[in-house]
Amino acid sequence: MRHLLSAGDLNVDSACLILDTAAQLASVTDRTVKKFPTLRGRTVVNLFFEDSTRTRISFEIAAKRLSADVINFAAKGSSVSKGESLKDTALTLEAMGADAVVIRHGSSGAPHRLATAGWIQGSVVNAGDGTHEHPTQALLDAFTIRHHLRDGTGDLSGVRVAIVGDILHSRVARSNVLLLRTLGAHVTVVAPPTLMPYGVSQWPCAVSYDLDEVLPHVDAVMMLRVQSERMHAAYFPSVNEYSRRYGLNALRMGLLPPHAIVLHPGPMNRGMEISADVADGERAVMVEQVANGVSIRMAVLYLLLGGMTDDGKKEI
Amino acid sequence: MPHETTVIRGVRPYGEDPVDIVVATGVIAEIATAGSGAGRVIEASGLIALPGFVDIHTHLREPGREDAETVETGSRAAALGGFTAVFAMANTSPVADTAGVVEQVWHLGKATGLVDVFPVGAVTVGLGGEQLAELGAMATSAAQVRMFSDDGKCVHDAAIMRRALEYVKAFDGVIAQHAQEPRLTVDAQMNEGVLSGQLGLTGWPGVAEESIIARDVLLAEHVDSRLHVCHVSTAGSVEVIKWAKSRGIKVTAEVTPHHLLLTEDLVASYDPVYKVNPPLRTSADVTALRAALAAGTIDAIATDHAPHPHEDKDCEWAAAAFGMLGLQTAFSIAVLTMINSGLLDWRALADRMSVRPARIGRALGHGHDLKVGAPANICVVDPGASWVVEPATFASKSRNSPYAGMTLPGKVMHVLKAGKPTVECGDLAC
Predict the structure, then answer these.
(1) Is A116 on the interface with B (CB under 8 A)?
(2) For the domain with range B62-361, which CATH number is right: 2.30.250.10, 2.60.40.10, 3.20.20.140, 4.10.640.10?
(3) Which of B78, B202, B300, B405 is least enclosed, having the fewest CB within 10 Å?
(4) For residue A80, is pLDDT > 70?
């Protein structure tokens, strides 16, 4: 595997390899010296066309713990807004010898284009593209779910997950539906019909408009952030109505089975899709998600640059 | 200098029995027994003669975007594609919304002389959709504009559309509508369907086209005016147009070659060469469009030839321009989709690529049957030839062809415009 562009590119073996590798690497963070020499002399570029401090820092820490040289390239504005074109930026990075480019871009498919247009030779990691995908987020979510519900090993066969919120615009939802399905989980997406993608009935998941009906039957619930721009575009009548119908609050927590966990990719709108007491409650695993994100990104960089064959076997 | 007599020897008009077509003084002087005609001979045995094609939807980009195309380069591409007339869309810079601009384009076409260039006038000032452009001035200018369109933008205001339809009745004009409901297509990138949801690209739903067509045919009926629907792309639009025609509404419609062949699946590559407006649709739509063209519900093939410089396609999807080249591949795509499938015979293809489009645009001197006395606008094609599409060799200034590398059937060999050769043996006549 040379690039990580879509969670759909992973089969169960390659996905589990990433999760297992992340588990091994996670033990490093418990040591005093948190570094591996594995990627010494390799250059990882964080190419961020959108502001995303948390994802960028996560990739940066991951690369640094593997001893890679990290360059943060905050490309403000894309070719859309008269900045340098994606192509010219790519050619520049290529000339500087980037071994891997971690790209966050507002345009769906930009990482795919970067990987396939012949502009660069290095590996491309999709760190979130438009409303398309965010595969490392899905991997860290799967890792977190596996840790809590499957003792941190194997796949996610039989695990029931609800993904709740703005499915239409969510790259996190797309990657999670694909990856969780590959790992054997049963996924239900929950949203008002206006925030469901056209044709969602053909996605490999169940679809519901009723959160209360779904909650008693899941082992994990993933709440998605509702972007403020959606609040003024007639996707739902008001913030209050959305919160009443689709927000996770203490009352709704009572509908969940006792073992169920609550995930959120962050940043949260407290009081909107999730109430503060739920966000701070003991079944919320957001802080773990952040920590696991570093391990997952270490695993991805390690496997892409250190070597992973297409059949999911590690090349050491 | 006496007018030269040209003989197209042994050619099969509409694929029928071989004859000699004798051309003199710009008209078909005689249709004679094969081998009997005298004059300058174009050897054409095995080839098929059709009336020169008429493209009622071309973007020549001049004035304003001469880096993408000019009237001259676009005319060359058109001639090589078998066309003898093209309609140049109004979304230039400045917009062709005055007599001055349409006359400029018309003069540039005359100066090049390879095809007759019929400028299309804008419906509204600056394509702004708010104030009618001086349609009458454009109609009575040297360019004699009869087709008006804000193509690229929809005349979305129902009252403006109604007034435009009414107003052009005074000079036998037609409003060519780019049917796209703007509020349903904000930031739209591709056909709305399961695939757009998966790819995370904002959908362009078929209903945004169909709802405008439905409104416009009703308006055209109400004010008894001529409406032409540009680049029909969905099965639903076909149903609306069929219904309108059954009621006797004066509506005509066109389909592009790319909508007859390509489907949305290509967008999964995120390669902007497949980004076009209206977007590539589903195979069910393609099937319906082919059937509608065969039945005559859709009247014409029109290229929507949309040249763009390399940098406008060599980028991420959302940043890329909409549009595809079409002039030099239209005939072959028509052969591939309509002739080879048995949906159209050669006479019917001539009807959809020459006769009807000429009638829709009131292109005087074009779209005549191949008979004695008709203007000698003639395209001679080799139905058995095939060729590999190499955009680098195109006469167009741009290279954004979605067919690069494909082997296509049918080749344009010779073209006569008003009796004068513009293309000989597949190359421009000099």
Answers:
(1) yes
(2) 3.20.20.140
(3) B405
(4) no
Cβ-Cβ contacts under 8 Å, A89 against chain B? none
A-chain residues near B194 (CB < 8 A): 198-199, 202-203
Residue A145 in any domain: the answer is yes
Q: Dihedral (C-alpha) B204, B207, B210, B211: value to the nearest 10 degrees?
A: -120
Which of B269, B314, B317 comes nearest A108 by C-beta? B317
CA distance linking residue B382 with residue B332, whole number of Å: 10
A275 and A227 within one domain: yes
Shortest distance, CA B193 to any CA of chain A (angstroms):
6
Kindly write down the DSSP assignment for every residue of A246-278, as one continuous string. H-B-HHHHTTS-TT-EEE--S---BTTTB-HHH
A103 at the B interface (CB within 8 A)? no
Q: What residues in B contact A128, CB-CB < 8 Å?
A: none
pLDDT at res. A82: 54
Cα(B104)–Cα(B142) distance, integer angstroms: 10
Contacts of A107 in chain B (CB under 8 A): 316-319
| Rama region for B64: left / alpha / beta (φ>0; ψ in -120 to 50; rest) | left
Please tell me the predicted confidence (pLDDT) of residue A234: 86
Superfamily for the B6-48+374-428 domain: Urease, subunit C, domain 1 (2.30.40.10)
In total, how many domains does chain A have? 2
Is residue A315 in a domain? no
Nearest by CB to residue A108, choosing from B194, B199, B315, is: B199
The mean of the pLDDT values for chain A is 92
> So what's the pLDDT on residue A313?
47
Closest approach of A72 to chain B, Cα-based (Å): 21
Do A297 and A274 lie in one domain? The reply is no
Over the stretch A199-244, which tens digit does the pLDDT of each residue have? 999 999 999 999 999 999 999 999 999 987 777 788 999 999 999 9
CA B282 to chain A, closest CA, distance in angstroms equals: 14
Can you tell me the distance from the alpha carbon of B336 to that of A59, in angstroms, rounded to the nearest whole number? 50
- Distance of CA B277 to CAs A51, A208, B180, Å? 31, 33, 9
Q: For residues A135-146, b (16+ Cβ closer than 10 Å) or e, as one string? A: bbbbbbbbbbbb
Is A65 in the active site?
no
Nearest to A107 among B192, B269, B318 (CB): B318
**Residue A1 placed within a domain:** no
DSSP state for residue A229 in the 8-state scheme: G
Same domain, A161 and A266: yes
Give the closest-approach CA distance of B359 to chain A in angstroms.
40
Of B151, B304, B312, B382, the active-site residue reads: B304
Domain ranges of chain B: 6-48+374-428, 62-361
Domain residues for A195?
135-289
Residues A74 and A169 in one domain: no
Q: Give the pLDDT of residue A1.
A: 83
A87 touching B (Cβ < 8 Å): yes
Q: Are residues A56 and A142 in the same domain?
A: no
Q: Are residues A167 and A266 in the same domain?
A: yes
My answer on whether A92 and A157 are in the same domain is no
* Beta strands, E only, B162-284: 174-177, 190-191, 203-204, 227-229, 251-255
Nearest by CB to A132, from B193, B199, B315: name it: B199
Domain membership flag for residue A117? yes
Q: Both tokens of residue B400? A: 């954004």
Whether residue A140 sits in one domain with residue A108: no
**CATH number for the domain harbouring residue A259:** 3.40.50.1370
In terms of Cα–Cα distance, which of A205, A172, A180 is closest to A16? A180
